[in-house]
Amino acid sequence: MIALLALACGLAAGSEIRVAVLQLLRPSQLTLHAGQIAIGAERISARDGVIVSADGNRVRSRGYSGEALSSTGPQVTIETGGMRRAYRGSVEIRARGGVLLPIVTIELEQAVAAVVAAEMPGAQKEALRAQAIAARSYYLAGDRHAFGFCDTTHCQFLTAPDASSSAAAKDTERLVLTHAGRVARAMYFRSCSGTTLSAADAGLSSEPYSYFSAICETCRRKPYQWEARLPQAQAERLLREGPSETLRVQLARQFGWNTIASNTYTAFTEGGTVILRGTGHGHGVGLCQRGARGMAESGAGYAAILQHYFQATELSRK
To answer: What are phi and psi of 117, to 5 degrees?
Structure first.
């Protein structure tokens, strides 16, 4: 069993985090519902919704303009691009080059439940609990942006919490993964090739945690398979350098996020085209979500799942 320790570090249970939301949409305009908003020196009622737009690096609403718009809680709702999201908390909206940056301040456990709902919908209870602890650990390991976190794959996805994800967060409240006395930024991904990757395998830093390779029986029995074709001129680095997460992300920005599905593949050229044939989905480091589901189906508890994928860590109480 993973040891259960008491840990004193940054955020405490009941604390809040800041997350930039709806970032994949890159909205230039949105509709905000809140009790009251402040823009510049003005105070505006937003209960029936106000339109907020970006004007370069400034924010505009109802004829007023400022560097930022802010609201107080207890809840805000944002509509943009056909999506509607409600958050229990407050929001600050800034603009960068004509794109709005809504930054929601929400309670940590609400964020954990929202990540679990986005990342493991319909999973077994023990897999959901493992995901909740990984998500909480990721947040408590420290901010990844000046404002905190985003809601893309760079940080963690969010969606509306449901009963199962909320229960997983509550059941594991205050539990985190630690290594050498520090909270580990517990990475995870969709599916491996039968063996997860160490940080070094994926071309990532091994500090402060190495992410040891682990055998994943679920994916080994039936790995997810994919193929991609890229122009040789743009993909020459793949042949020269081999797989790495940094290169995969760079090429994903150019060709689409699902083009190179994983870091486990073979590459060869054919008539000026680089052909990739691989297995797995995601960077391959840390918790394999498909494998966690498989272990839960076989009766493993969340502690055993985490111990398997995060070797040399301890389950600690924050």
So the answer is: -65, -35
Region 142-166 average pLDDT: 90
Write the CB contacts of 149 (distance below 8 Å, at least 6 apart in sequence): 17, 18, 19, 20, 139, 143, 155, 156
CB neighbour burial string for 246-270, b if at least 16 within 10 angstroms, e if fewer: ebbeebeeebeeebbbbbbbebeee
pTM for this model (two decimals): 0.87
Please state the φ and ψ torsions of residue 242, each to the nearest 5 degrees.
80, 180
H or E, element range at 107: strand 99-107
The conformation of residue 28, written as its DSSP 8-state character, comes to S
Angle between helices 108-119 and 125-140 (to 10 degrees): 130
**Residue 227 near residue 209, CB atoms below 8 Å:** no
Reported as type and span, the H/E element at residue 218 is helix 217-221
> Of 78, 104, 85, 102, whose CA–CA distance to 17 is shortest?
104
Residue 244 confidence (pLDDT): 87
- pLDDT number for residue 212: 94
| 88/73 Cα distance (integer angstroms) | 7
Give the Cα separation of 171 and 43 in Å (integer): 40
List the structure tokens of 189. Answer: 């991904």
Question: If you count DSSP H runs as helices and E runs as strands, how many of each does the chain have, helices first?
Answer: 8, 20
**pLDDT exceeding 70 applies to what percent of the chain?**
96
